[in-house]
Amino acid sequence: MSRTPSEQELDAMDSFKKIKFFRLFEPSLGILGFFFVTVFVICCFFYMDYRDVANGFQFSNQTEKFVWLNFDGSAGEDRKVEFLSEQSNGCDVFEGDWVWDENYPLYQSKDCRFLDDGFRCSENGRPDLFYTKWRWQPKHCNLPRFDAKMMLEKLRNKRLVFVGDSIGRNQWESLLCMLASAVPRKDSIYEVNGSPITKHKGFLVFKFMDYNCTVEYYRAPFLVLQSRPPANSSPKVRTTLKLDQMDWSSLKWRDADVLVFNTGHWWNYEKTIRGFRSSDMKIALTCENEPSWKRTSGVFGYGNLWNIETWKKDIFRIPTFIRGCYFQEGSEVKMEMKIDSAYRKSIETVIGWIRREVNISKTQVFYRTYAPVHFRGGNWRTGGSCHLETLPELGSSLVPSHTWARYGIFADVISAHINTSDIKKLDVLYVTNMTSRRKDGHSSLYYLGPNAGIASIHRQDCSHWCLPGVPDTWNELLYALFLKREASHTRNSSTSRAQA
Ligand SMILES: *[C@@H]1O[C@H](CO)[C@@H](O)[C@H](O)[C@H]1NC(C)=O
Ligand SMILES: *[C@@H]1O[C@H](CO)[C@@H](O)[C@H](O)[C@H]1NC(C)=O
Ligand SMILES: *[C@@H]1O[C@H](CO)[C@@H](O)[C@H](O)[C@H]1NC(C)=O
Ligand SMILES: *[C@@H]1O[C@H](CO)[C@@H](O)[C@H](O)[C@H]1NC(C)=O
Ligand SMILES: *[C@@H]1O[C@H](CO)[C@@H](O)[C@H](O)[C@H]1NC(C)=O
Ligand SMILES: *[C@@H]1O[C@H](CO)[C@@H](O)[C@H](O)[C@H]1NC(C)=O
Protein backbone atom coordinates (compact mmCIF):
# COMPACT_ATOMS: atom_id res chain seq x y z
CA MET A 1 0.00 0.00 0.00
CA SER A 2 2.62 2.44 1.06
CA ARG A 3 4.71 1.73 -2.00
CA THR A 4 2.04 2.43 -4.59
CA PRO A 5 2.30 6.22 -4.48
CA SER A 6 5.99 6.16 -5.22
CA GLU A 7 5.54 3.92 -8.24
CA GLN A 8 2.66 6.01 -9.46
CA GLU A 9 4.68 9.09 -9.00
CA LEU A 10 7.60 7.66 -10.92
CA ASP A 11 5.27 6.66 -13.76
CA ALA A 12 3.80 10.11 -13.72
CA MET A 13 7.24 11.66 -13.83
CA ASP A 14 8.13 9.45 -16.77
CA SER A 15 5.16 10.42 -18.87
CA PHE A 16 5.62 14.01 -17.86
CA LYS A 17 9.13 13.89 -19.25
CA LYS A 18 7.89 12.38 -22.54
CA ILE A 19 5.25 15.05 -22.97
CA LYS A 20 7.79 17.70 -22.22
CA PHE A 21 10.15 16.26 -24.80
CA PHE A 22 7.60 16.49 -27.63
CA ARG A 23 6.45 19.91 -26.58
CA LEU A 24 9.98 21.19 -26.93
CA PHE A 25 9.55 21.46 -30.65
CA GLU A 26 6.81 23.99 -30.26
CA PRO A 27 8.04 27.56 -30.28
CA SER A 28 7.97 28.26 -26.60
CA LEU A 29 10.10 29.04 -23.65
CA GLY A 30 10.76 25.29 -23.48
CA ILE A 31 13.09 25.58 -26.49
CA LEU A 32 15.09 28.24 -24.82
CA GLY A 33 15.29 26.20 -21.63
CA PHE A 34 16.20 23.08 -23.55
CA PHE A 35 18.86 24.95 -25.45
CA PHE A 36 20.53 26.18 -22.30
CA VAL A 37 20.29 22.83 -20.62
CA THR A 38 21.81 21.16 -23.67
CA VAL A 39 24.66 23.61 -23.88
CA PHE A 40 25.28 23.13 -20.20
CA VAL A 41 25.19 19.35 -20.47
CA ILE A 42 27.58 19.41 -23.44
CA CYS A 43 29.93 21.66 -21.54
CA CYS A 44 29.75 19.27 -18.64
CA PHE A 45 30.58 16.34 -20.90
CA PHE A 46 33.62 18.07 -22.30
CA TYR A 47 34.73 18.96 -18.87
CA MET A 48 34.17 15.47 -17.48
CA ASP A 49 35.95 13.85 -20.41
CA TYR A 50 38.87 16.01 -19.80
CA ARG A 51 38.84 15.13 -16.15
CA ASP A 52 38.72 11.44 -16.97
CA VAL A 53 41.71 11.76 -19.22
CA ALA A 54 43.64 13.66 -16.63
CA ASN A 55 42.47 11.43 -13.87
CA GLY A 56 45.78 9.77 -13.20
CA PHE A 57 46.39 12.39 -10.54
CA GLN A 58 49.93 13.04 -11.55
CA PHE A 59 50.16 16.14 -9.53
CA SER A 60 53.01 17.60 -11.48
CA ASN A 61 50.50 17.63 -14.29
CA GLN A 62 47.66 19.06 -12.24
CA THR A 63 48.90 22.59 -12.43
CA GLU A 64 48.96 22.61 -16.22
CA LYS A 65 45.47 21.22 -16.25
CA PHE A 66 44.10 23.96 -14.09
CA VAL A 67 45.91 26.67 -15.92
CA TRP A 68 44.26 25.34 -19.05
CA LEU A 69 40.87 25.41 -17.37
CA ASN A 70 41.36 28.92 -16.16
CA PHE A 71 42.20 30.05 -19.67
CA ASP A 72 39.00 28.57 -20.90
CA GLY A 73 36.71 31.39 -19.93
CA SER A 74 33.69 29.68 -21.49
CA ALA A 75 33.72 27.09 -18.72
CA GLY A 76 31.53 29.54 -16.86
CA GLU A 77 30.84 28.51 -13.32
CA ASP A 78 33.50 25.85 -13.55
CA ARG A 79 36.05 28.60 -13.33
CA LYS A 80 36.24 27.91 -9.63
CA VAL A 81 39.54 26.39 -8.73
CA GLU A 82 39.59 22.63 -8.17
CA PHE A 83 39.97 21.67 -4.54
CA LEU A 84 42.74 19.21 -5.36
CA SER A 85 44.86 21.74 -7.15
CA GLU A 86 47.60 23.62 -5.37
CA GLN A 87 45.90 26.97 -5.88
CA SER A 88 42.92 25.95 -3.80
CA ASN A 89 44.87 25.93 -0.57
CA GLY A 90 42.75 27.69 1.95
CA CYS A 91 39.45 26.97 0.23
CA ASP A 92 36.92 26.18 2.93
CA VAL A 93 34.95 23.31 1.45
CA PHE A 94 32.44 23.49 4.27
CA GLU A 95 31.24 26.90 3.23
CA GLY A 96 28.83 26.59 0.35
CA ASP A 97 25.39 25.62 -0.82
CA TRP A 98 23.28 22.62 -1.70
CA VAL A 99 22.65 22.63 -5.44
CA TRP A 100 20.29 20.46 -7.46
CA ASP A 101 22.19 17.95 -9.57
CA GLU A 102 20.54 15.41 -11.86
CA ASN A 103 23.66 13.26 -11.77
CA TYR A 104 22.82 12.25 -8.25
CA PRO A 105 22.38 9.95 -6.38
CA LEU A 106 25.67 8.09 -6.68
CA TYR A 107 23.96 4.70 -6.21
CA GLN A 108 20.51 3.17 -5.68
CA SER A 109 19.64 1.59 -2.38
CA LYS A 110 18.17 -1.47 -4.09
CA ASP A 111 21.55 -2.16 -5.69
CA CYS A 112 23.36 -2.03 -2.38
CA ARG A 113 23.06 -4.93 0.00
CA PHE A 114 25.05 -3.20 2.73
CA LEU A 115 22.23 -0.99 3.91
CA ASP A 116 20.14 -1.44 7.02
CA ASP A 117 16.44 -1.44 6.28
CA GLY A 118 16.19 1.65 8.42
CA PHE A 119 18.05 3.73 5.83
CA ARG A 120 16.20 2.47 2.75
CA CYS A 121 13.62 5.22 2.76
CA SER A 122 12.44 4.98 -0.83
CA GLU A 123 12.11 1.22 -0.63
CA ASN A 124 10.23 1.73 2.62
CA GLY A 125 7.64 3.92 0.96
CA ARG A 126 9.04 7.43 0.97
CA PRO A 127 7.24 9.00 -1.99
CA ASP A 128 9.66 11.76 -3.04
CA LEU A 129 13.19 11.36 -4.39
CA PHE A 130 14.25 14.98 -4.15
CA TYR A 131 16.41 14.32 -1.12
CA THR A 132 18.74 12.21 -3.27
CA LYS A 133 19.46 14.97 -5.79
CA TRP A 134 21.43 17.56 -3.87
CA ARG A 135 25.12 18.08 -4.30
CA TRP A 136 27.27 20.15 -2.02
CA GLN A 137 28.93 23.05 -3.84
CA PRO A 138 31.66 24.85 -1.90
CA LYS A 139 31.66 28.59 -2.44
CA HIS A 140 35.23 29.05 -3.58
CA CYS A 141 36.25 25.79 -5.19
CA ASN A 142 34.95 22.58 -6.76
CA LEU A 143 35.04 19.20 -5.09
CA PRO A 144 36.41 16.28 -7.08
CA ARG A 145 33.65 14.03 -8.30
CA PHE A 146 33.61 10.86 -6.26
CA ASP A 147 35.48 8.12 -8.09
CA ALA A 148 35.00 4.80 -6.31
CA LYS A 149 37.72 3.03 -8.29
CA MET A 150 40.23 5.71 -7.44
CA MET A 151 39.34 5.59 -3.78
CA LEU A 152 39.61 1.80 -3.70
CA GLU A 153 42.94 2.02 -5.48
CA LYS A 154 44.19 4.44 -2.84
CA LEU A 155 42.89 2.13 -0.14
CA ARG A 156 44.66 -0.92 -1.52
CA ASN A 157 46.08 -3.02 1.34
CA LYS A 158 44.68 -0.56 3.84
CA ARG A 159 42.08 -0.35 6.60
CA LEU A 160 39.51 2.41 6.78
CA VAL A 161 37.68 2.46 10.11
CA PHE A 162 34.62 4.34 11.33
CA VAL A 163 34.25 4.67 15.08
CA GLY A 164 31.21 6.24 16.68
CA ASP A 165 27.47 6.13 17.11
CA SER A 166 24.70 5.03 14.78
CA ILE A 167 25.05 8.18 12.69
CA GLY A 168 28.62 7.07 12.10
CA ARG A 169 27.18 3.77 11.04
CA ASN A 170 24.88 5.65 8.69
CA GLN A 171 27.97 7.19 7.09
CA TRP A 172 29.86 3.92 6.99
CA GLU A 173 27.05 2.15 5.15
CA SER A 174 26.88 5.04 2.73
CA LEU A 175 30.58 4.65 1.96
CA LEU A 176 30.21 0.89 1.49
CA CYS A 177 27.54 1.52 -1.13
CA MET A 178 29.55 4.27 -2.81
CA LEU A 179 32.62 2.05 -3.06
CA ALA A 180 30.72 -1.11 -3.99
CA SER A 181 29.22 0.69 -6.98
CA ALA A 182 32.59 0.28 -8.70
CA VAL A 183 32.92 -3.43 -7.97
CA PRO A 184 31.24 -5.63 -10.56
CA ARG A 185 31.59 -8.87 -8.62
CA LYS A 186 29.50 -8.19 -5.53
CA ASP A 187 30.46 -11.43 -3.80
CA SER A 188 34.04 -10.19 -3.72
CA ILE A 189 32.92 -7.93 -0.88
CA TYR A 190 32.19 -9.76 2.33
CA GLU A 191 32.10 -9.47 6.10
CA VAL A 192 35.22 -11.16 7.39
CA ASN A 193 33.40 -12.95 10.21
CA GLY A 194 30.41 -13.81 8.07
CA SER A 195 28.09 -11.53 10.03
CA PRO A 196 25.09 -10.13 8.20
CA ILE A 197 24.86 -6.36 8.21
CA THR A 198 21.83 -6.42 10.50
CA LYS A 199 23.49 -8.33 13.28
CA HIS A 200 26.80 -7.82 14.92
CA LYS A 201 28.74 -7.73 18.11
CA GLY A 202 29.71 -4.11 18.16
CA PHE A 203 31.71 -4.13 14.97
CA LEU A 204 31.63 -5.20 11.34
CA VAL A 205 34.54 -5.54 8.93
CA PHE A 206 33.88 -5.59 5.22
CA LYS A 207 36.63 -6.67 2.92
CA PHE A 208 36.98 -5.65 -0.71
CA MET A 209 38.80 -8.72 -1.93
CA ASP A 210 40.16 -7.31 -5.18
CA TYR A 211 41.80 -4.46 -3.31
CA ASN A 212 42.74 -6.27 -0.10
CA CYS A 213 41.24 -3.43 1.87
CA THR A 214 38.71 -3.34 4.66
CA VAL A 215 36.07 -0.77 5.52
CA GLU A 216 35.13 -1.24 9.15
CA TYR A 217 32.68 0.04 11.70
CA TYR A 218 33.07 -0.03 15.49
CA ARG A 219 30.21 0.98 17.67
CA ALA A 220 31.46 3.35 20.36
CA PRO A 221 28.80 6.00 20.80
CA PHE A 222 30.82 7.96 23.35
CA LEU A 223 34.30 7.11 22.04
CA VAL A 224 35.31 6.85 25.70
CA LEU A 225 34.95 3.72 27.77
CA GLN A 226 31.74 2.60 29.37
CA SER A 227 32.13 -0.08 32.00
CA ARG A 228 31.72 -1.26 35.57
CA PRO A 229 31.87 1.29 38.37
CA PRO A 230 34.61 1.13 41.00
CA ALA A 231 33.98 -1.45 43.70
CA ASN A 232 33.25 0.94 46.54
CA SER A 233 30.77 3.17 44.76
CA SER A 234 27.17 3.76 45.76
CA PRO A 235 24.70 1.05 44.73
CA LYS A 236 22.93 3.70 42.68
CA VAL A 237 25.85 3.61 40.29
CA ARG A 238 25.31 0.75 37.92
CA THR A 239 27.67 1.76 35.16
CA THR A 240 30.08 4.59 34.45
CA LEU A 241 31.53 6.38 31.48
CA LYS A 242 35.26 6.64 32.05
CA LEU A 243 35.94 10.01 30.55
CA ASP A 244 39.70 9.62 30.56
CA GLN A 245 39.91 6.29 28.75
CA MET A 246 39.22 5.39 25.15
CA ASP A 247 36.68 2.75 24.26
CA TRP A 248 37.87 -0.85 24.64
CA SER A 249 37.91 -1.32 20.90
CA SER A 250 40.63 1.29 20.36
CA LEU A 251 43.24 -1.46 20.48
CA LYS A 252 41.63 -2.92 17.40
CA TRP A 253 41.69 0.21 15.29
CA ARG A 254 44.66 2.18 16.56
CA ASP A 255 46.75 1.02 13.62
CA ALA A 256 44.18 1.59 10.91
CA ASP A 257 45.26 3.68 7.92
CA VAL A 258 42.23 5.94 7.99
CA LEU A 259 40.15 6.62 11.10
CA VAL A 260 36.85 8.46 11.04
CA PHE A 261 35.47 9.43 14.45
CA ASN A 262 32.16 10.86 15.41
CA THR A 263 30.24 11.29 18.62
CA GLY A 264 27.68 13.67 20.03
CA HIS A 265 24.34 12.07 19.44
CA TRP A 266 24.29 10.12 22.65
CA TRP A 267 25.43 13.11 24.66
CA ASN A 268 22.43 14.90 23.44
CA TYR A 269 19.29 13.88 25.19
CA GLU A 270 19.82 15.66 28.42
CA LYS A 271 17.89 18.76 27.64
CA THR A 272 14.94 16.96 26.16
CA ILE A 273 14.81 14.54 29.05
CA ARG A 274 15.28 17.23 31.64
CA GLY A 275 12.08 18.68 30.28
CA PHE A 276 9.99 15.87 31.65
CA ARG A 277 12.11 14.33 34.36
CA SER A 278 12.61 15.90 37.72
CA SER A 279 15.31 18.50 37.54
CA ASP A 280 17.37 17.03 40.36
CA MET A 281 18.36 14.16 38.13
CA LYS A 282 22.13 14.12 38.00
CA ILE A 283 22.73 10.99 36.06
CA ALA A 284 23.87 10.76 32.54
CA LEU A 285 20.97 9.22 30.79
CA THR A 286 22.86 8.50 27.66
CA CYS A 287 24.37 5.21 28.68
CA GLU A 288 23.32 1.88 27.25
CA ASN A 289 20.13 0.47 28.64
CA GLU A 290 21.90 -2.38 30.30
CA PRO A 291 25.45 -2.68 31.44
CA SER A 292 27.03 -4.31 28.48
CA TRP A 293 29.05 -6.92 30.35
CA LYS A 294 25.82 -8.47 31.56
CA ARG A 295 24.86 -9.28 28.03
CA THR A 296 28.07 -10.69 26.70
CA SER A 297 30.48 -13.22 27.91
CA GLY A 298 32.91 -12.59 25.10
CA VAL A 299 35.79 -10.19 25.01
CA PHE A 300 33.73 -7.45 23.48
CA GLY A 301 32.12 -4.77 25.51
CA TYR A 302 29.01 -4.38 23.43
CA GLY A 303 26.80 -7.33 22.79
CA ASN A 304 24.53 -5.18 20.79
CA LEU A 305 22.32 -6.70 18.17
CA TRP A 306 21.47 -4.25 15.50
CA ASN A 307 18.04 -4.89 14.13
CA ILE A 308 14.87 -2.96 13.91
CA GLU A 309 14.14 -3.51 17.59
CA THR A 310 17.48 -2.10 18.62
CA TRP A 311 16.88 0.64 16.16
CA LYS A 312 13.63 1.63 17.81
CA LYS A 313 15.20 1.31 21.23
CA ASP A 314 18.07 3.48 20.17
CA ILE A 315 15.74 6.20 19.12
CA PHE A 316 12.66 5.91 21.24
CA ARG A 317 13.19 4.01 24.41
CA ILE A 318 15.91 5.98 26.02
CA PRO A 319 14.00 6.77 29.23
CA THR A 320 13.92 3.09 30.15
CA PHE A 321 17.56 3.26 31.08
CA ILE A 322 17.66 6.43 33.07
CA ARG A 323 19.15 4.69 35.97
CA GLY A 324 22.54 4.36 37.34
CA CYS A 325 24.92 5.60 34.69
CA TYR A 326 27.41 8.17 35.97
CA PHE A 327 30.61 9.79 34.80
CA GLN A 328 33.96 8.75 36.14
CA GLU A 329 37.45 10.27 36.08
CA GLY A 330 40.34 8.27 37.42
CA SER A 331 38.84 6.16 40.16
CA GLU A 332 36.36 8.81 41.14
CA VAL A 333 32.70 8.76 40.19
CA LYS A 334 31.57 12.32 39.57
CA MET A 335 28.04 12.31 40.84
CA GLU A 336 27.48 15.97 40.03
CA MET A 337 29.13 16.31 36.65
CA LYS A 338 27.07 17.92 33.90
CA ILE A 339 26.80 16.41 30.47
CA ASP A 340 28.49 19.36 28.78
CA SER A 341 31.62 19.09 30.89
CA ALA A 342 31.68 15.33 30.45
CA TYR A 343 31.37 15.74 26.69
CA ARG A 344 34.22 18.25 26.67
CA LYS A 345 36.40 15.89 28.70
CA SER A 346 35.70 13.03 26.34
CA ILE A 347 36.86 15.08 23.36
CA GLU A 348 40.02 16.05 25.24
CA THR A 349 40.58 12.35 25.81
CA VAL A 350 40.17 11.55 22.12
CA ILE A 351 42.64 14.27 21.13
CA GLY A 352 45.15 13.20 23.75
CA TRP A 353 44.82 9.64 22.57
CA ILE A 354 45.44 10.63 18.96
CA ARG A 355 48.55 12.48 20.01
CA ARG A 356 49.91 9.65 22.12
CA GLU A 357 48.83 6.51 20.32
CA VAL A 358 48.38 7.24 16.65
CA ASN A 359 51.29 7.17 14.25
CA ILE A 360 50.31 10.23 12.27
CA SER A 361 52.64 9.45 9.40
CA LYS A 362 50.74 6.23 8.83
CA THR A 363 47.21 7.01 9.95
CA GLN A 364 45.02 9.78 8.64
CA VAL A 365 42.53 10.80 11.31
CA PHE A 366 39.19 12.42 10.58
CA TYR A 367 36.69 13.73 13.04
CA ARG A 368 33.18 14.37 11.76
CA THR A 369 31.31 17.00 13.72
CA TYR A 370 27.84 16.59 15.10
CA ALA A 371 25.01 15.95 12.64
CA PRO A 372 21.91 17.90 13.68
CA VAL A 373 18.49 16.40 14.28
CA HIS A 374 15.36 18.03 12.85
CA PHE A 375 12.39 17.31 15.05
CA ARG A 376 9.70 19.89 14.65
CA GLY A 377 6.78 20.41 17.00
CA GLY A 378 8.25 18.22 19.67
CA ASN A 379 11.25 16.05 20.17
CA TRP A 380 12.04 12.47 19.39
CA ARG A 381 9.75 11.35 22.16
CA THR A 382 6.88 13.78 22.06
CA GLY A 383 5.82 13.35 18.46
CA GLY A 384 8.28 15.72 16.81
CA SER A 385 8.19 15.34 13.07
CA CYS A 386 10.11 15.92 9.85
CA HIS A 387 8.13 13.73 7.42
CA LEU A 388 6.68 16.67 5.48
CA GLU A 389 10.08 18.11 4.65
CA THR A 390 10.96 17.53 1.03
CA LEU A 391 13.38 20.40 0.41
CA PRO A 392 16.52 21.64 2.11
CA GLU A 393 16.52 24.91 3.95
CA LEU A 394 18.35 27.05 1.44
CA GLY A 395 18.83 29.98 3.76
CA SER A 396 19.59 29.71 7.42
CA SER A 397 18.53 26.62 9.25
CA LEU A 398 16.26 26.01 12.19
CA VAL A 399 17.88 23.38 14.31
CA PRO A 400 17.66 23.09 18.08
CA SER A 401 20.11 25.23 19.99
CA HIS A 402 21.81 22.18 21.47
CA THR A 403 23.17 21.51 17.99
CA TRP A 404 25.37 24.57 18.24
CA ALA A 405 26.14 23.87 21.90
CA ARG A 406 27.42 20.39 20.94
CA TYR A 407 29.34 21.83 18.05
CA GLY A 408 30.67 24.74 20.11
CA ILE A 409 32.18 22.48 22.74
CA PHE A 410 34.04 20.55 20.09
CA ALA A 411 35.20 23.71 18.32
CA ASP A 412 36.42 25.10 21.65
CA VAL A 413 38.52 22.08 22.44
CA ILE A 414 39.94 21.97 18.93
CA SER A 415 40.89 25.63 18.88
CA ALA A 416 42.66 25.24 22.21
CA HIS A 417 44.79 22.52 20.61
CA ILE A 418 45.04 23.86 17.11
CA ASN A 419 48.64 25.01 17.41
CA THR A 420 50.00 21.71 18.55
CA SER A 421 51.59 20.11 15.55
CA ASP A 422 49.84 16.75 15.86
CA ILE A 423 46.39 18.19 15.90
CA LYS A 424 47.13 20.16 12.77
CA LYS A 425 47.14 16.78 11.15
CA LEU A 426 43.62 16.01 12.30
CA ASP A 427 41.16 16.50 9.46
CA VAL A 428 37.88 17.79 10.78
CA LEU A 429 34.79 17.19 8.69
CA TYR A 430 32.82 20.27 9.67
CA VAL A 431 29.47 18.95 8.52
CA THR A 432 27.26 20.52 11.21
CA ASN A 433 26.39 23.69 9.38
CA MET A 434 25.76 22.19 5.95
CA THR A 435 23.79 19.34 7.45
CA SER A 436 21.64 21.64 9.53
CA ARG A 437 20.05 22.78 6.25
CA ARG A 438 18.99 19.25 5.28
CA LYS A 439 15.78 18.82 7.24
CA ASP A 440 14.52 16.88 4.21
CA GLY A 441 17.05 14.08 4.51
CA HIS A 442 15.86 12.06 7.51
CA SER A 443 14.31 8.61 7.67
CA SER A 444 11.18 10.15 9.32
CA LEU A 445 8.39 7.55 8.85
CA TYR A 446 10.31 5.33 6.49
CA TYR A 447 12.62 3.29 8.67
CA LEU A 448 10.64 0.13 9.37
CA GLY A 449 11.71 -1.95 6.38
CA PRO A 450 10.08 -2.67 3.02
CA ASN A 451 7.45 -5.06 4.36
CA ALA A 452 6.50 -3.34 7.58
CA GLY A 453 4.69 -0.29 6.24
CA ILE A 454 5.39 3.16 7.53
CA ALA A 455 5.87 4.16 11.14
CA SER A 456 3.38 5.88 13.38
CA ILE A 457 3.35 9.60 12.84
CA HIS A 458 4.28 10.09 16.49
CA ARG A 459 7.33 7.90 16.21
CA GLN A 460 9.54 9.58 13.68
CA ASP A 461 13.23 9.26 13.14
CA CYS A 462 14.55 12.74 12.47
CA SER A 463 18.07 11.79 13.54
CA HIS A 464 19.21 9.16 11.05
CA TRP A 465 19.47 9.78 7.32
CA CYS A 466 17.98 8.16 4.27
CA LEU A 467 20.46 6.52 1.91
CA PRO A 468 21.35 7.48 -0.69
CA GLY A 469 21.37 10.90 0.89
CA VAL A 470 23.15 13.35 3.11
CA PRO A 471 25.89 11.02 4.49
CA ASP A 472 27.03 10.46 0.88
CA THR A 473 28.06 14.10 0.89
CA TRP A 474 30.05 13.70 4.09
CA ASN A 475 31.85 10.89 2.32
CA GLU A 476 32.50 13.00 -0.75
CA LEU A 477 34.17 15.49 1.56
CA LEU A 478 36.07 12.67 3.23
CA TYR A 479 37.19 11.57 -0.22
CA ALA A 480 38.30 15.09 -1.13
CA LEU A 481 40.35 15.57 2.04
CA PHE A 482 41.76 12.07 1.72
CA LEU A 483 43.02 12.78 -1.81
CA LYS A 484 44.17 16.25 -0.80
CA ARG A 485 46.50 14.85 1.81
CA GLU A 486 47.78 12.30 -0.65
CA ALA A 487 48.37 15.10 -3.13
CA SER A 488 50.35 17.20 -0.70
CA HIS A 489 52.42 14.16 0.27
CA THR A 490 53.14 13.48 -3.37
CA ARG A 491 54.06 17.10 -3.97
CA ASN A 492 56.32 17.19 -0.94
CA SER A 493 58.11 14.01 -1.85
CA SER A 494 58.58 15.14 -5.45
CA THR A 495 59.80 18.52 -4.19
CA SER A 496 62.32 16.90 -1.90
CA ARG A 497 63.39 14.58 -4.70
CA ALA A 498 63.89 17.55 -6.93
CA GLN A 499 65.92 19.30 -4.29
CA ALA A 500 68.08 16.27 -3.60
C1 LIG B 1 52.04 14.04 -17.15
O1 LIG B 1 51.44 12.76 -16.96
C2 LIG B 1 51.70 11.85 -18.00
C3 LIG B 1 50.91 10.58 -17.68
O2 LIG B 1 49.58 10.90 -17.49
C4 LIG B 1 53.19 11.58 -18.09
O3 LIG B 1 53.47 10.67 -19.17
C5 LIG B 1 53.93 12.88 -18.31
O4 LIG B 1 55.32 12.65 -18.28
C6 LIG B 1 53.55 13.89 -17.23
N1 LIG B 1 54.17 15.18 -17.51
C7 LIG B 1 54.92 15.80 -16.64
C8 LIG B 1 55.43 17.14 -17.06
O5 LIG B 1 55.20 15.33 -15.54
C1 LIG C 1 46.62 -7.10 2.66
O1 LIG C 1 46.65 -5.94 3.49
C2 LIG C 1 47.25 -6.14 4.74
C3 LIG C 1 47.18 -4.82 5.49
O2 LIG C 1 45.86 -4.46 5.72
C4 LIG C 1 48.70 -6.58 4.57
O3 LIG C 1 49.25 -6.84 5.85
C5 LIG C 1 48.75 -7.81 3.72
O4 LIG C 1 50.10 -8.16 3.46
C6 LIG C 1 48.03 -7.58 2.42
N1 LIG C 1 48.00 -8.81 1.65
C7 LIG C 1 48.43 -8.88 0.40
C8 LIG C 1 48.28 -10.20 -0.25
O5 LIG C 1 48.91 -7.92 -0.17
C1 LIG D 1 54.99 5.30 11.65
O1 LIG D 1 54.58 4.92 10.35
C2 LIG D 1 55.60 5.07 9.36
C3 LIG D 1 54.96 4.82 8.00
O2 LIG D 1 54.26 3.61 7.98
C4 LIG D 1 56.72 4.09 9.70
O3 LIG D 1 57.76 4.23 8.74
C5 LIG D 1 57.25 4.41 11.09
O4 LIG D 1 58.22 3.45 11.46
C6 LIG D 1 56.13 4.40 12.11
N1 LIG D 1 56.61 4.88 13.40
C7 LIG D 1 56.43 4.20 14.53
C8 LIG D 1 56.96 4.83 15.76
O5 LIG D 1 55.85 3.14 14.57
C1 LIG E 1 48.09 29.82 17.31
O1 LIG E 1 49.16 30.44 16.60
C2 LIG E 1 48.81 31.64 15.92
C3 LIG E 1 50.03 32.15 15.19
O2 LIG E 1 50.88 31.13 14.81
C4 LIG E 1 48.30 32.67 16.93
O3 LIG E 1 47.90 33.84 16.24
C5 LIG E 1 47.12 32.10 17.70
O4 LIG E 1 46.71 33.00 18.70
C6 LIG E 1 47.49 30.77 18.36
N1 LIG E 1 46.32 30.19 18.96
C7 LIG E 1 46.30 29.69 20.19
C8 LIG E 1 45.00 29.16 20.66
O5 LIG E 1 47.30 29.66 20.89
C1 LIG F 1 26.54 28.51 8.69
O1 LIG F 1 26.76 28.88 7.35
C2 LIG F 1 26.19 30.11 6.98
C3 LIG F 1 26.39 30.31 5.49
O2 LIG F 1 27.72 30.08 5.11
C4 LIG F 1 26.82 31.23 7.79
O3 LIG F 1 26.24 32.46 7.46
C5 LIG F 1 26.59 30.94 9.28
O4 LIG F 1 27.26 31.90 10.06
C6 LIG F 1 27.09 29.55 9.64
N1 LIG F 1 26.70 29.27 11.00
C7 LIG F 1 27.57 28.87 11.93
C8 LIG F 1 27.00 28.67 13.29
O5 LIG F 1 28.74 28.68 11.69
C1 LIG G 1 54.61 19.71 2.77
O1 LIG G 1 55.59 20.71 2.85
C2 LIG G 1 55.13 21.94 3.40
C3 LIG G 1 56.27 22.93 3.40
O2 LIG G 1 57.23 22.62 2.44
C4 LIG G 1 54.62 21.70 4.82
O3 LIG G 1 54.10 22.91 5.35
C5 LIG G 1 53.53 20.64 4.82
O4 LIG G 1 53.13 20.36 6.14
C6 LIG G 1 54.03 19.38 4.16
N1 LIG G 1 52.94 18.45 4.06
C7 LIG G 1 53.05 17.18 4.42
C8 LIG G 1 51.83 16.37 4.27
O5 LIG G 1 54.08 16.69 4.83
UniProtKB/TrEMBL annotation:
GO molecular function annotation: O-acetyltransferase activity
Domain Trichome birefringence-like C-terminal: 143-272, 323-480
Keywords for this protein: Membrane, Signal-anchor, Transmembrane, Transmembrane helix
Main location: membrane
A Pfam family reported for this protein in Swiss-Prot or TrEMBL: PC-Esterase
Membrane topology annotation: Single-pass membrane protein
Transmembrane segments: 21-48
Start and end residues of each Trichome birefringence-like N-terminal domain: 90-142
Localisation per UniProt entry: Membrane
Gene Ontology cellular-component terms listed: Golgi apparatus; membrane
InterPro entries cross-referenced by the UniProt entry: TBL, TBL_C, TBL_N
PANTHER family referenced in this protein's UniProt entry, alphabetically: PROTEIN TRICHOME BIREFRINGENCE-LIKE 11, PROTEIN TRICHOME BIREFRINGENCE-LIKE 9-RELATED
Similarity field: Belongs to the PC-esterase family. TBL subfamily.
Name of the protein in question: Trichome birefringence-like N-terminal domain-containing protein
